[in-house]
C-alpha cells in the first residue's frame, strides 16, 4: 500500500511539473526556503558510508534525523524556519524517503506549521541531490489560513557537502 501511495504521489508530481499554465509557468510560487543543516542523528549506519558507497546499505535500510534552520520568503509572509527536522529513511535500493516536520516563524510573530514527505535522489558524481516534496502548511492565524487549503509541490536541491538546501514550493 505504501509503495502504491508513493507511486501515485510521484505520478502526480510528474503531471504537475509537466503541466503548464497559459503563461508558461508550472504553478504559482508559494515560498522559497533556504536552509542549512545544523545537526544529524544516525542510528547505527553512517550517512558518510551511504554517500561514499564503501559500505553497503543494511538490508533493512537506515534511518537518520537531520535538523535544519534557515529563512523563508513566501506569498504574503517572510520569516525564519526553526526546528525543521527530516526523519528520513534510506531504502536498501539507495533511495531516500523524506518525512519533514517543522515550524515557520513569520517576521510578525505568527507560526506556520510545515510538514510533508518526498524523495531525495543523489546525482551521480556530485555532492548535489535533488529534492521532490509534497508539502502541507497550516496556521490558525487569520491572515495565514489560506495556506491550509494549498497542495504544495516543492522542488530543489541539497548540497550534501555543505548541508545547504534551496527549495521552492508551488501550488
Q: Count the beta strands.
A: 8
Fold-level CATH name: Porin
Strand content bin: over 45%
The helix-and-strand class reads: mainly beta
Structure overview:
- With 171 residues, this protein is mainly beta.
- It has one domain: Porin (Beta Barrel).
- It is built from two helices and eight strands; from the N terminus they run αβαβββββββ.
- It has an eight-stranded antiparallel β-barrel.
- A hairpin with a 5-residue loop joins β3 (77-90) and β4.
- The radius of gyration is 16 Å and the shape is elongated.
- Mean pLDDT is 88; it is low at 4-23.
Summarize it:
By secondary structure, the chain is mainly beta. The chain contains two helices and eight strands; from the N terminus they run αβαβββββββ. The protein has an eight-stranded antiparallel beta barrel with strand order 1-2-3-4-5-6-7-8.
Secondary-structure topology with pairs:
Blueprint: H1 2-18, E1 29-42, H2 47-52, E2 62-74, E3 77-90, E4 96-106, E5 111-122, E6 128-138, E7 152-159, E8 164-170
Antiparallel strand pairs: 1-2, 1-8, 2-3, 3-4, 4-5, 5-6, 6-7, 7-8
State the main characteristics.
Porin; mainly beta; elongated; 8 strands; 13% helix; 8-stranded antiparallel barrel; single chain; 171 residues
Amino acid at each position: 500500500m505504501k509503495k502504491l501511495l508513493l507511486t501515485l504521489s510521484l505520478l502526480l508530481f510528474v503531471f504537475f511539473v509537466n503541466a503548464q499554465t497559459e503563461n508558461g509557468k508550472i504553478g504559482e510560487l508559494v515560498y522559497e526556503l533556504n536552509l542549512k543543516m545544523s545537526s544529524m542523528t544516525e542510528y547505527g549506519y553512517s550517512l558518510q558510508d551511504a554517500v561514499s558507497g564503501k559500505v553497503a546499505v543494511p538490508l533493512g535500510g537506515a534511518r537518520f534525523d537531520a535538523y535544519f534552520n534557515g529563512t523563508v520568503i513566501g506569498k504574503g509572509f517572510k520569516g525564519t524556519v526553526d526546528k525543521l527536522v527530516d526523519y528520513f529513511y534510506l531504502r536498501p535500493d539507495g533511495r531516500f524517503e523524506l518525512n519533514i516536520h517543522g515550524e515557520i516563524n513569520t517576521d510578525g510573530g505568527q507560526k506556520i506549521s510545515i510538514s510533508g514527505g518526498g524523495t531525495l535522489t543523489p546525482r551521480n558524481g556530485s555532492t548535489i541531490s535533488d529534492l521532490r516534496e509534497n508539502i502541507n502548511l497550516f496556521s490558525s492565524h487569520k491572515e495565514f489560513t489560506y495556506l491550509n487549503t494549498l497542495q504544495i509541490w516543492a522542488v530543489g536541491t541539497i548540497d550534501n557537502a555543505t548541508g545547504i538546501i534551496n527549495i521552492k514550493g508551488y501550488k
